[in-house]
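Whether sequence alone determines local backbone shape is best considered at the level of individual chains. Part of our work consisted of pairing the sequence of a single chain with a tokenised description of its backbone. This step matters because it turns folding into a mapping between discrete strings. For completeness, the protein is quoted in full, as a sequence line and a line of structure tokens:

_____
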Amino acid sequence: MVKYEQVVIVGVGLLGGSLGLALRNRQLARRVVGVGRSPSRLEQAIQLGAVDDGTPDLKSAVATADLVVMCSPVQSIIGSLEDCLSSTRALVTDVGSTKVSICERASEILGAASTSQMGRFVGSHPLAGSEKVGVQNASGDLFVDRTCVLTPLPETPAADVDELRLFWEAVGSRVLQLSPAEHDKSIACTSHLPHILASALAGTTPDELLPLAASGWLDTTRIAGGNPQMWQEIIAENREAISAALQSYSDELTRWLAAIDAGDDQSIHQMLVQGKEQRDSVGS
């Protein structure tokens, strides 16, 4: 069943391309339009079937949209929000990995609007992705059985939240709802901290030891292969929560170091058991 006449995806990379494929494969939109600065990348997205058409003109694209999903990096989303919201009456959402700054900017724009001819905004963050980038790595099943977090503001109409919940469920996601601040604090622990740890491990492993790197090292450092510029922006937008998560992890490492130095095998065993049980509880 077609749910939307036209969905506009701003930024047709891995996430945007995967969303376009999901919409087209599931026949959820009659037309999917990609917005981007690179004509060659837009043409690639068209050839791969992720979008029906592409344009560099954000304002004209969103003017006739039923739904707009902003899939560019966080700081780009913030910079484009005013042009987007002022050029459409559609529901606008995003896939940014941090939510406070994006949602605050949207609230400022909508609160200062002198006309009702504006878009509506609800933040979202699908917990899906890969260390790979680009529409060439997109998958129409990327969001299946993945959690998507919605981050409405207190003034957000319930109807807008319900519409966005149904949208993400339609592409296969499980939907949760948090405040923007709760989201950023939580994701600092479960997404941003792991990336920093993976990067630190990869970056501090001496070259001469790399021939000995087996599955444990490779599995642990896989996400360090992500886009450094994108991750620098994510960290910049969530410094306080990430710093707190790093401090908590540092305290845990201190306990490990003390147990190892003391030969406290019982404590080491307890910490290993705790880690295994926690990891086993989330499945594969």
